[in-house]
Design goal:
There is one protein chain. The protein is an all-alpha fold and 394 residues long. It folds into four domains: 69 residues, lambda repressor-like DNA-binding domains (434 Repressor (Amino-terminal Domain), Orthogonal Bundle), CATH 1.10.260.40; 120 residues, no CATH class; 129 residues, Serine Threonine Protein Phosphatase 5, Tetratricopeptide repeat (Alpha Horseshoe); 73 residues, no CATH class. It contains 22 helices and no strands. The two termini are 14 Å apart. The N terminus is likely disordered.
Length: 394
């Protein structure tokens, strides 16, 4: 078998613990993680689950990204993505400077078409393409919004900021994702968009989910649901409401609150029965399939991996479903199968995750932790397993 990467997540936890002069017992007491789980995670014989990562990060008062090792600088340089981050930062920084005198923005419809194309491209997994053209469009949309000072202009700027959030999140830059969300909210307030305001709360809640701050995330979900009550009744509001319930379900699952998670899943399922497939509404992919996919995630967060794998195998995704969502689902299913000992099936789904959206899978924490778990399983896997690890740079 191939050796585990020297700087796997467990090794980083051990190093951070040592820097704080904490024994394993002390960190277990602070984080609530069982002693055997922590020791095996540090040794690399047990993959670090999102719950473990968030718990130890919170206990040691460091960011989750510090524990996971994000952003993955070596891979970003290899993919020439690192040089695309700073221009996005700079384009988000000019949000309140008014119109740029050196820019003559195009007509609103042309900018709107570009914004929609970016949303589609992100969901197709074309992260590098989007990151390359986003900064110029953000600056142009900022000038256009200030010149027009209209609802349409501000909401369009909010859409571009949302795409900046998508890119930053997928590439492992939580600080930049937070900045992008604040710009999204700033523009949405000026556009008086209750639906966009609700969507902002949903996305902000996801940042707290990743950071392990479940109580704050839950408060944001509830706030988002309250804001959506002010929106006009209809399919758009229903879709956003359902998506917020899905986010709340995963939040509750990671907080190990199974009853609350089931309540949110049930409500999302009820709404999905009414809306049907609503992938076209704000590109959230909401609908019955998304509810089923989130059920897999929730079951995995509750450590019910056998049930997660069973539900996941039965899901039939529509051909039109976005590649990014398919890739994410395959990664979650692979994680569940790895924990249940179905290693060949788990690796097959890692391959599916890569085929569906290679750029996303390469930077996906679940993909990396699942690969590490398979690496440590001490079972012969095909030669392609080694090439997959080389592709991940582990």
């Amino acid at each position: 078998m191939h050796a585990l990467p020297h700087d796997h997540t467990g090794a980083r936890i051990k190093r951070l613990r040592g820097e704080r002069n904490l024994t394993q017992r002390a960190l277990c007491d602070l984080s609530g993680i069982p002693y055997s789980t922590l020791t095996k995670t540090e040794q690399g014989t047990l993959p670090a689950s999102p719950h473990v990562i968030a718990s130890v990060a919170r206990a040691m008062r460091v960011e989750v990204a510090t524990v996971t090792g994000q952003p993955y600088a070596t891979e970003l340089r290899a993919d020439e993505l690192d040089i695309l981050i700073q221009p996005i930062r700079e384009s988000l920084d000019v949000y309140d400077l008014g119109p740029d005198p050196d820019i003559t923005p195009r007509a609103h419809q042309l900018l709107h078409d570009d914004a929609e194309a970016l949303l589609v491209a992100v969901r197709a997994g074309e992260i590098k393409k989007v990151a390359g053209i986003l900064p110029g469009l953000l600056v142009e949309a900022t000038t256009a919004a200030h010149l027009a000072n209209s609802t349409e202009g501000w909401l369009l700027l909010a859409s571009f900021s949302r795409t900046a959030y998508d890119v930053a999140s997928k590439l492992g830059y939580p600080d930049l994702a937070t900045i992008a969300l604040s710009r999204m909210e700033w523009a949405a307030q000026r556009g008086s968009g209750a639906v966009v305001g609700g969507m902002y709360r949903y996305m902000r809640a996801l940042t707290y989910l990743r950071a392990g701050q479940y109580r704050t995330g839950d408060r944001l979900i509830r706030m988002g649901l309250g804001i959506l009550e002010q929106a006009d009744p209809g399919r758009e509001r229903d879709v956003l409401t359902g998506q917020l319930h899905l986010g709340a379900a995963v939040m509750a699952g990671r907080a190990q609150n199974g009853d609350a998670a089931e309540e949110h899943l049930t409500e999302a399922g009820r709404i999905a029965e009414s809306t049907g497939d609503a992938s076209d509404v704000h590109w959230l992919s909401f609908g019955p399939t998304n509810v089923a996919v989130h059920r897999v995630s929730v079951l995995a967060e509750l450590d019910e991996y056998g049930a997660a794998a069973e539900v996941g195998r039965a899901i039939k995704m529509p051909r039109s479903w976005p590649a990014s969502r398919r890739s994410h689902h395959f990664a979650e299913l692979a994680r569940a199968q790895m924990w249940t000992g179905h290693l060949d099936d788990a690796f097959a789904n890692l391959l599916r995750a890569r085929r569906a959206a290679p750029q996303q899978a390469r930077y996906h924490q679940t993909v990396r932790e699942t690969y590490a778990g398979l690496e440590a399983a001490k079972r012969q896997l095909p030669d392609s397993f080694l090439s997959y690890g080389s592709w991940l740079h582990v």
